[in-house]
Structure formats: structure tokens, C-alpha cells
Design goal:
Blueprint: E1 4-8, E2 19-21, H1 24-33, E3 36-41, H2 53-62, E4 68-71, H3 76-91, E5 100-103
Parallel strand pairs: 1-2, 1-3, 3-4, 4-5
């Protein structure tokens, strides 16, 4: 199966070769349907009820995987929280130990 790259963000331009998702539901649907080589997540989304952290929570609860996960949020508090949740899930064996997890804020 071909692996895809997902970019969750509702403001920034999507990098070439990525599927752009602007909301939590679309991102989760792609994670459920495809193997993911790179998942890049923003914290702040237009919908204040569904922030990028909801994707992280769903991934952990349902043991969804990606080879490489980047938290690219400019929100330092929210981005760090997502990053720490991912690291904890990896330490607990929920996420594969081979998964690369990075915190790399991008400017708006």
C-alpha cells in the first residue's frame, strides 16, 4: 500500500505531495484509511471546538500510526502539549518506537 503525507492546517499553504486537511474529521478519516509516512499537525484551527490535539487524542485512543509526526503549530503552549502527549504515548508503547516525533513551529 502506498503511504501518504497529511498536512492539517487551515491557514498555511500545503507543501507539495501532501494531502491538505483543514479539520479534525478529514484528518482522522485519512489516518483510518491510509498508511501515513508523514503527519504534520497544527494546534489552532478555525473551529475552536476541534483543535489539532483532537487528532492526537484519537490516534492514541485508537493506536493509529504514522512513520513521522511533526507538530508545526505556532501556538507554543498547544503545540508543546500535543508533542508531549505523543512522546508519552510512544514511551508507553502506544505509538511505535520507530516513529519520529518533532516539534517545529511554523510562522503564520
Amino acid at each position: 500500500m502506498t503511504k501518504i503525507k497529511i498536512f492539517l492546517d487551515d491557514l498555511r499553504n500545503c507543501p507539495d505531495g501532501y494531502f491538505l486537511t483543514t479539520n479534525v474529521s478529514d484528518c482522522i478519516n485519512l489516518l483510518k484509511k491510509f498508511e501515513v509516512s508523514h503527519l504534520s499537525l497544527d494546534y489552532d484551527l478555525e473551529s475552536h471546538d476541534f483543535k489539532g490535539i483532537k487528532v492526537v487524542e484519537y490516534m492514541i485512543k485508537n493506536r493509529l500510526q504514522a512513520d513521522f509526526i511533526t507538530v508545526h503549530s505556532a501556538n507554543s503552549v498547544g503545540g508543546k502539549k500535543m508533542y508531549m502527549m505523543l512522546l508519552k504515548a510512544q514511551d508507553e508503547g502506544v505509538l511505535a518506537h520507530s516513529t519520529v516525533i518533532k516539534l517545529r513551529p511554523l510562522p503564520l
